[in-house]
DNA sequence: CAGAATCCGGAAGGATACTG
DNA sequence: CAGTATCCTTCCGGATTCTG
């Protein structure tokens, strides 16, 4: 998640801030942005796609997504659990067993994620070419 | 955009023969994540939706999105321009006039953005309830 | 008008070490 | 096995000031 300001301090009235704060309450923190913010978290997409195939244990996820440190993986899982997108099931045993699984809410987000993936795969080439052209014009 | 590590050029190869770094090149920086990263930028969603209604001048955008500082608005517009999602047209005059407009590529992204918006509006309630429940269990 | 340049606090994310 | 705790670096995003 980017450093999105939680909620503006009540009386922090700077010169031009009044309308800005009110606006943010309406738009910057609107549902769309909140969801985009969560989906934009570095490892959320990968975790969601990984769990789309079915429940997985912590270790499995860690091996499937080696790029994520255990700190980031855990943080990502915790946030998604808090948002109700996945469930965490602890099985007391020796050693402990923890399974993660998408909730119905999490499953309902998959089509959206797939829409992004489809657009990305089809258009990333154009984006790259646009970047090259832009950078060529002026570094 | 989050601090997503830039990754070297594409070197498609067998999935399992690759090291951790190579894995990141394939997945952490895959098209989906690159697009999610850009869409997750704090003001990208609002700018895109604002320009969905047609071309706008810099000042209009600034007034439409008062939550964004000039720096962030400009930075957002520059990045979207670099990615080929919008065009920037400077009309030499006194004073200068600059218009921003979605490119066909940018327009093609709107349905995806709308899909996110639709999901968000329909499910943000569940997310909020899930959070309350989670926080109630343990702060 | 439409920005560029600068300073700054703080959040994000990674690496490492330790634990029930 | 599945985390927690800690430290550290990067850099995002806001505020302010200056310019063609």
Name the CATH superfamily classification of chain A. Winged helix-like DNA-binding domain superfamily/Winged helix DNA-binding domain
Structural class, from helix and strand content of chain A? Answer: mainly alpha
Number of helices of chain A: 6
Distance between the termini of chain A: 28 Å
Listing every helix as H and every strand as E from the N terminus to the C terminus, the arrangement of chain A reads HHHEHHEEH
How many strands, what sense, and barrel or not for the largest sheet of chain A? Answer: 3 strands, antiparallel
User: In which order are the strands of the major sheet of chain A placed?
Assistant: 1-3-2
CATH topology of chain A: Arc Repressor Mutant, subunit A
Name the pair of protein chains with the most residues at their interface, and give those residue counts. Answer: A-B, 55 and 54 residues
Shape of chain A: elongated
- The CATH architecture designation of chain A is Orthogonal Bundle
Computed over alpha carbons, the radius of gyration of chain A is: 19 Å
Oligomer: homodimer
Give the uncertain stretches of chain A in residue-range form: 5-25
- The proportion of residues in beta strands of chain A is 5-15%
Reading off the top of the CATH hierarchy, the class of chain A is best stated as Mainly Alpha
Average pLDDT of chain A, to the nearest integer? 86
How helical, in percent, are the residues of chain A?
Answer: 55-70%
């Amino acid at each position: 998640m980017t450093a999105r300001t939680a909620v503006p301090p009540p009386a922090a009235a700077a010169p031009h801030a009044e309308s800005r704060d009110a606006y943010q309450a309406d738009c910057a923190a609107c549902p769309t942005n909140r969801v985009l913010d969560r989906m934009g978290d570095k490892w959320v997409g990968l975790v969601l796609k990984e769990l789309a195939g079915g429940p997985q244990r912590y270790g499995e996820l860690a091996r499937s997504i080696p790029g994520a440190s255990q700190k980031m993986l855990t943080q990502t899982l915790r946030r998604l659990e808090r948002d109700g997108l996945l469930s965490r099931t602890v099985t007391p045993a020796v050693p402990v067993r923890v399974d993660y699984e998408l909730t119905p809410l999490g499953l309902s987000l998959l089509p959206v994620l797939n829409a992004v993936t489809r657009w990305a795969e089809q258009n990333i080439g154009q984006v790259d070419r646009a970047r090259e052209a832009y950078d060529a014009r002026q570094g």
